[in-house]
What does this fold into?
Amino acid sequence: MGRQMKMTQGYTKDGYKLNPIYDDTASFVNSKFCVPWTSNFPKLRIIPFYNVLWAEIDNNHLIIVFVANWISILLDCSYKGAQQKKRAKVLINPYSGNGKARRWYSKYIKPLFEAARCSIDAVETGYSGEGTTISEGLDVDKFDMVVVCSGDGLAHEVFNGLGKRPDARRALSKIAVAHVPCGSGNGLSQNLNATGNASIATLAVIKGIRKPLDLISVTQEDSRVLSFLSQTTGIGAESDLATENLRWMGEVRFKLGFLTRILAKKVYPCEIVVRIVMSSKESIMDHYAQESLKNALEDAKCERTPEVDSSGEDQANKGLPPLEYGTVHDKIPDDWTVIPGDKLGILYCGNPGPGYDLSSGSTIEVISETADVQYIHYKRRCYALTIVGQVVMGIAGAVPISLPSHYTNLWFDGNSRIAANAIMSLSNPTGGAIAQIIALIVVKTKQDIPTLMLYISIIATLSILVPAKPLTPPCMPSEEENVHPKAALMMLAKNPRFWLFFIPFTIFIGFFNAISSLLTQIMSPYGVSSDTSGYLGAALIGCGLVTAAAATPVIDKLQARLLSMKVAAPTIGICYLTFIWIPGSPIVTAYVVLGVIGGASFTLLPVTLEWLAKETEPAPPEVSSVLCWMIGQLLGIVFTISMQNLKTHGDPAVPNGDMKRGLIFEGVIAIACSILPLFERLVRKMDVPNMQPAFCQYNETLLRVVPEAQLRAEWSYSIGYIEGKGM
It folds into this structure.
């Protein structure tokens, strides 16, 4: 065979490998293994001679018979105690969610079961309640598990079908119920496998170890229903049941139903009676630690959960156990607590994580035979005061946004306005970030919030010491001209150069707000931790502040407003387009792209505000700045909601929660609008004929050339402005 490189099979406790070997007879004779061990051979575990059963040469191929032993070890290490070749009854609801269950089963689920040599009996359900009928008549000795390819509704039917059997205890103990997410709400998969991806959930089912799950009995009059995940009434339940006609929207229907009922402030009066097992935070934390350790030890043993002995007529004839505490018609035990719920909004108990992006708790999953109960009720007076406070703060928050352009026009000359505008504009988000840090330090309990608000109010009163305008204007243009707001808006609307910069500027504000808010959701599907996402956000803001501080004085000195805007806008657009491919790439690329976005955006901000203020004279500078900020913030809300709704859930082809569609939406719009400033020169040339003839307008402090069209416009709305000024 000569000294030619070959391949041999190797394994470790972590996985399977193919290792290169060399044909070296001398080394082979003195070796303890069936492949040579030379200095050139990688030091990996290989097959000992003791495990070799037979060896022969067939058509110049060396055949070593050791496979049975090796495969056994490989499979044992791969399954780690889980049952192999599971027998599965698969129920598929082709109408669940967006109607993709049948296609996902054929493309992503069935191939994995077949590759794992699982025995499959697949059935498609055709009507509501068929899952209950199938599981009620299921031969539990023929199957190891029932796999539900649907949403949570079909899993609910399976549990209740098993619970209706005469041998309910045996059936529920012997048959495992598994969930592969294919519906609108996939809370069971989220709790069992921490995923909404069909392929990943299927792999978890194949490699899964059977474990018990607490079921809760819910009674209403004479009916008894088994609940397996969570129990809720109020807004949460109605948001699900009342949006059945909106199934085509997918999981968005839950959010829509929830939002409409929150805004309507619906209440669901009832009386809540609970038996409190543990209530203090310390006792819950201790119990959590103990149960977590217990579960970790059980998982480390890699042992299957022992099946219930199904032999014997006594076990076979046992249905569900009787209710331990009765129903609402029975007397309330003395150790139970009554909670009034006349203004109940939401009652929720059970497991955490009813959805992909909603978590109701963090400890309940390890506390057996108990249910975490959370309830929310409205206090009308406090609610009204909160709404009033939010409205007042929202109105007040818009004031600092409109001030920079106005004050820089009054206090600074043309050589320093951009830098001053940058300081004033960026101080608002910087102060907000500092305030969040201070709030974390100062506010320890909810009683500390009024104290912090009092401090803020006292500090805010210092603003009355700021003079309205300087005693001596720094330059001639600092003289203010009184222009009616309606006339000012008309001037902006008729200025094409204003729109060339207004459109990309407002869109960039919206996208900056959206990407900074959704950064964690964008990166987390690709294994990026929330801490790292926080560092990425810090890079976005930090690079922006540093770049703006360094660039704006230079732009002021060189008077390069147009050039800087024409460079910054396409740069931002290219970066947003590039960001489509950043998730899943090396993390350093995310730092670079976000740093460039932050630097270009924060530099563009004061330059554009100053340029728009000068371009739209004699309209007050705050008109253009307020309009830009207002539209930009509204677009930020629209873009954030749109990108969240473009998330991908349940598609095995991409990570669960992938936001690539939202990033494509963002990148395409950003690159399209970023080229608008490049047409400024063309628009200016087209506007030249309208600038002749011109009048020389003079007053005591100002000599300037005014286009005839602009002068006529000023004359039409301000006769008093023209009178008394020589020409």
Summary: The mean pLDDT is 73. DSSP finds 25 helices and 17 strands in the chain.
